[in-house]
Amino acid sequence: MGEVSTTTRSSSENGDDLLRKMNASELICEVLVNFGVTHVFGGHGGAVVGLVDAIMAHTKLTWVYNRCEVNAVQAAMAYAKLHNRLGCCVATSGPGAGHLLSGLVDADQDRVPLLCITGLKAAGTMRHADFQDIDQGAIFRMAGIGLSESVSHIHQLIPLLRNALYLATTTYRCAHLAIPIDVQLDSVTAPRFLNFRSENLSKNVLDHASDEQIRALATALIKERMDGHHMVIFCGWRAFPFGDAIEALAEYLDVPIITSYDGKGCVSESIPHSFGVAGIYGFVGGGKSQEVLEDCDVIVAFCMSDLTKAVTDKSGMQVRRLIQIESEIMAGDSNRYIAVHSFESHDLAQSIPLVLEAMTQETEKMKVSFDDRDQRIRRKSRMSTFPSERAPVETKYCHPGLFFKNMSLLLDNDAILCADIGDNALWMASGISAVKGQRTLTSEHMGIMGFALNAGLAASCSTSRQVLVVAGDGGFQMSSNELATLKDHGCKNVLVVIIQNGRLGRVSNETWGPGVRGDGCLIGSPDFVKLFEAHGYPKGKHLTTSDESEIWDTISESWDLASKQGVAVIVVHQDPETHPTMHKISAASGEVAWERYLNEMNKERSLKDNHDVSPSNKAITLSSNSINKLNSLKEWIESHSTAVVSSYCWVGSSFLSISPAQVFQNQLKELNPAAPEIFSQEERDDFDKDFWRLLMNSFTVEELSELFDKGSSNGYPLRLQILVLPKDSTYALHAHPNIELIIGMQGELMEYKLTDYRHSKRVLQRTSHKIIPPSDEEIKNMMEHFEHCMVIDDQDKRSHFVDRLCTRQGKCCANQIGSVHQSFSRKESGTLLFVLWSGCHANIQLTNIKGTKGAELLRKEHYC
């Protein structure tokens, strides 16, 4: 760990450290370098001369003077998003600071770590002289910036700088400090060991996920797939380092991947599971991505700061279940929606393969696979309108769809794609099939016109990679003055593509509703090739043909030119009447969406909060051959006068290695040596698959995680066991201290069920820390303890006992923790059950039932 104090250090010839006093601006520069900043973007002015002098003097910082502060903040944001580290922009007081507003809001909404430093007049002259004197902090705070403060005294600098850096880097937000010019030049007194480094700030999540977290996520993903839900993986821009893991996960689960626009390039769009971009400037964007998104039930969100497009419908209701996978926990958008499971780890590249390994182990043991995905989504399509016999291209125009199809093939695997807003963005998003490793930079939330060239400046200043800048003729003119900045910094490998159609295409082409035409969109443009030549970039190309060989040659020659002279331009002349399709989520009724949302969420809450949602009528596969053999046991079942139980098989932490069908057969043979072999090998496999499916469908991820990790539920070790109940046999009224799965193998089991009531899970919990299963004596003692303290208070009209079928042959009943019932066999026939339980019931004396409707139904004799 390094230190930042009132001094910097340099080495003398004899090796001794020499000390040099620092001012506030020099301290800020040291801190920026410690946080990985290499380039500072901004505009100049009298209120920041001290800070800019320090930046220019620092050997590890590059000052990028932008022609307008509007462009500077966009470049700083693009820099931060590209490198996933702190970005920094600087502006002088008054109009300089005012120009920053939209870019700061964009960075904040896109969840980009950005520090903005603006100058102020000398502290003693503020607020009583009107030249370039505005309350910057108040303006930015009102706009929603996460932190915006004025440093009015040198003693405030260190704590406020610390707070700003903490907010920016740990919550991925924008932070702003306004510093008077005299404070910038003042000497700073700091502790000798001032740990101003990003690694010294407290982290929100663990570097490495625990084994328990790994298995819990694996279980959650398996559960959702086995529940038959349509699942989609949705990636944000911060998922870029984890592309390999995401592709492997999608392939294993056999589910689609879509990305946000700035997440384009996280995965290769040529793989079968990739369905492109969803979420272009407030809408879905892609044709197939729209279909996939609308059909899905579960979103697996990878590093998604804003989940709105992922989990809501057009009416803003959450209509999809959410599994959230994050490298950072952030307040705001990411916490706005309910997640059925959350997983956080800084090192997702290491964690997700471990999750895959855990899933593989679980599914192999359960003998299940995920190959039932709706095959319709395999028919991928691009959303652009391509030329056809019915819609040929005019001879004097170049079709953007064809242009970007060819451009896609001529991009380096690590190219940086800088997108603007408008029809040009739609053409680019759909026409370029990104490969894993390419990056896309865009203004995702604000949709700022002119962003592309500023992003290209940031990318080309800080990397040597191929940089593609795509803008419309309207958007490009908003930042064309930055061509001079590109020249100042000798930027290389930048190819600018301008889609020229003489209008603001997205506004003009959109359907706004009855009586709204979208007028005022026609614009003129200079000769862009000559404009580039005037800035020192000659030999630009006008492309006015859709001949693909000419398109290919033009792109190839332009990239070659960009590598030699730094920047090249292609002006794609588009037919104004040709435009891409903007796909949108279908309109939804708020009432319908709300009902769907409540149904899903109530189901999840019911499982978590112990409400009754057990799939009591779900079936398990029994062949006619197996049924005949089980029916042959009726006489043996009726021959018993009291309940009989087999020996038990504690499931333990190796539960998934057990064959439930084999356990049943062994226990049946133990009870009745003359019993037939119930299952063939194929039938045994089918029974096991259904057993695991029913188990996964019946309980929450938390309950399943405890079961698979420890072989227990609510602290009680679970076991598999056969129960034989002769006719007219009754269990005492009881609550379930743990989850319980009952499979009917022969006959019927009835119950008096107490509806809408649960005993507290905490009260029923087994607190013993012993891993070994309890003895029969211990279980007996626990049951005696419960019998003396279990009470059902007056339920008035909230709950009542109902007489109903619990399970029968080939059916399953899942009892949740705390559920209350009295189960019994019919008077005319007994039943054979295969159960997963602890052997412990929390029996309730009938005298401890207070004013509950239906209590008169309960049996008072023939207890097992």
Structure description:
- The protein contains 29 helices and 35 strands.
- With 864 residues, it is of the alpha/beta class.
- Strand 7 (147-150), helix 7 and strand 8 form a beta-alpha-beta unit.
- The longest helix has 20 residues, at 590-609.
- Mean pLDDT is 83; it is low at 1-19, 372-384, 585-594 and 604-617.
Helices and strands in order:
Elements: E1 7-11, E2 17-21, H1 24-34, E3 39-42, H2 49-57, E4 62-65, H3 69-83, E5 87-91, H4 95-98, H5 101-109, E6 114-120, H6 136-142, E7 147-150, H7 154-171, E8 174-180, H8 181-184, H9 211-226, E9 231-235, H10 243-253, E10 257-259, E11 274-280, E12 283-285, H11 287-295, E13 298-302, H12 308-311, E14 321-326, E15 341-344, H13 348-366, H14 400-409, E16 416-419, H15 423-431, E17 439-441, H16 451-462, E18 467-472, H17 473-476, H18 483-488, E19 494-500, H19 505-509, H20 528-534, E20 541-543, H21 548-565, E21 567-573, H22 590-609, E22 618-619, H23 624-631, H24 634-638, E23 644-645, E24 649-650, H25 660-671, H26 681-698, H27 701-710, E25 712-713, E26 716-717, E27 719-725, E28 734-735, E29 740-746, E30 748-754, H28 761-764, H29 776-789, E31 801-808, E32 811-815, E33 820-825, E34 831-837, E35 842-843
Parallel strand pairs: 3-4, 3-5, 5-6, 6-8, 7-8, 9-10, 9-13, 10-11, 13-14, 14-15, 16-17, 16-18, 18-19, 19-21, 20-21
Antiparallel strand pairs: 1-2, 11-12, 22-32, 23-27, 24-27, 25-26, 27-34, 28-33, 28-35, 29-32, 29-34, 30-31, 30-33
Helix pairs in contact: 1-2, 3-5, 3-16, 9-13, 9-27, 10-13, 14-15, 14-21
Domain Thiamine pyrophosphate enzyme TPP-binding: 420-571
Domain Thiamine pyrophosphate enzyme N-terminal TPP-binding: 22-138
Domain Thiamine pyrophosphate enzyme central: 231-336
